[in-house]
Amino acid sequence: MGQLLVADTTTRGRLPERVRRQVTRQQDATERLVGWVQLAVVAVFGALYWLSPKTFEAHDTFQPVPYALAAYLGFTLIRLAASYRTHLGDWFLYLSIVIDMALLFVLIWSFHLQYEQPASFYLKSPTLLYVFIFIALRALRFEARFVLTAGLAAAAGWAVLVIYVVTVNPEDPMITRNYVTYLTSNAVLLGAEFDKIISILTVTGILALAIVRARKLLVSSVAESTAANDLSRFFSPEVADRIVQSEEIGVGAGESRDAAILNLDLRGFTPLAQQVAPDAVMRLLADYQAEMVPIVRKHGGSIDKFLGDGIMATFGASASTDSYAADALRAVEEIMVAARAWQARLAAGGRPCVPVNAAVACGRVVFGAVGETDRLEYTVIGEAVNLSAKLEKHNAALGSRALVTRHAYDTACQQGYRPAAPIQELPGARIEGVGQPVDVVRLA
Questions:
Q1: Which InterPro entries match (predicted)?
Q2: Residue 358 has pLDDT above 70, yes or no
Q3: 175-213 tens-digit pLDDT
């Protein structure tokens, strides 16, 4: 059992702090569950006591059961309330275990007074079986040390009751070696009592061993869950899910699908960044990304990468969809409205502000992992990716805010998109870095 306790403590010591906090939250929830189970147990005890027929005269016999149940109920309610108000410290949990066992064994000890029998009378009480409920309750926390504490407290409590029986009357310890005499009288069979103690310790050891094994799975599960949450901060939720659920992620495997590529950029950001303090630059970027990214995700977009003041997002690449172009253009329209409002707020606060440009192109792209074994990155590759980036820069030449290829616009309309305002068609536009003229649509 000592090795189990060491293993349990060692496992706790190896946990990263963020995983430990998550495990602690799970354990706090478990303590509340334990409190409710204990409340249910005392309610069952009380119901059974009041409904069961009494074999003694109520008016002239000492009745400790109601007092013990009332004490246990009071402690359970205090413990339950405390579990909702604060994190229960280890000392409180150990004290709780001792009090649980002490109340149970005091109750068992009182039976010989209640029924006016020799002390050995209570050794036959089936109420001893309830110790296994209290031991099992501690297993809900997935910490072997509390199970071990409960088991050792139970074994020690029963040993004390046995010692009391054989020493309370030195002239007649009531010990027998006859099994039949033991079963048919108040005689004490020490072997039977040792069997009960061994059974308590054996069950405790098995539960503790199971918990040590289960705790490793719990820690692994919490670590994976925490890692998945952290991944979603560095990757889009779709990519994070793909990473978590994939059996193996390797370079060279990709998927080809139709998608829309959206590029956003702050026009004039580079000159502005050279004129203002670094903190102001980073705060502007953070505000800009906080405004734009939720809109992209709202319309089903996935952030591919942040490129300084640029944001590249994909629609239909990481997760296939039949409305990728329509989703991208709806996102652009909302982004333009949000960008104007954002600029107005910055100007009203006396902060530097620059307009937001957007461009969308769509077509067949390849989505997959690139890099080398120790450094991978999910990305998209294709003509639409390059065209969207170059089209975004063309905004500066035209003085426009949002441009989309005619192909992307027609595809979006086929998918149910309807522009919120009149558009301007720009056929045969010459875009720097693109060899052939491109039919372009300017969104209002």
A1: A/G_cyclase, Adenylyl/Guanylyl_Cyclase_3/4, Nucleotide_cyclase
A2: yes
A3: 888 888 888 888 889 999 999 999 999 999 999 998 888
Tokens 């054996």 found at: 202
Structure-block tokens of residue 335: 């982004």
Helical spans, DSSP H, in 15-143: 17-51, 65-85, 90-109, 111-114, 130-139
pLDDT tens digits for range 91-146:
888 888 898 888 889 888 888 877 778 888 889 888 898 899 889 888 887 788 99
Q: Which two tokens stand for residue 267?
A: 């026009």
Q: Output the six-digit token pair for 18.
A: 């963020």
Cα–Cα distances (Å) from 406 to 1, 332, 359, 362, 432, in that order, read: 73, 15, 12, 10, 17
Answer for the pair 150, 101: CB distance below 8 angstroms, yes or no: yes
Q: What is the DSSP string of 220-270?
A: HHHHHHHHHHHHHHHS-HHHHHHHHH-S---TT-EEEEEEEEEEEEETTHH
Residue from 441, 362, 434, 328 nearest 395 by CA:
441
| DSSP at 438 | E
170: Cβ contacts below 8 Å, ≥ 6 apart: none
Residue with tokens 């450094």: 375
Domains recognised in the chain with CATH numbers: 2-230 (no CATH), 238-442 (3.30.70.1230)
What whole-number distance in Å separates Cα of residue 275 and Cα of residue 444? 31
Distance (Å, whole) CA 319 – CA 301: 9
SS3 of residue 316 by DSSP: coil
- E strand or H helix at 121: none
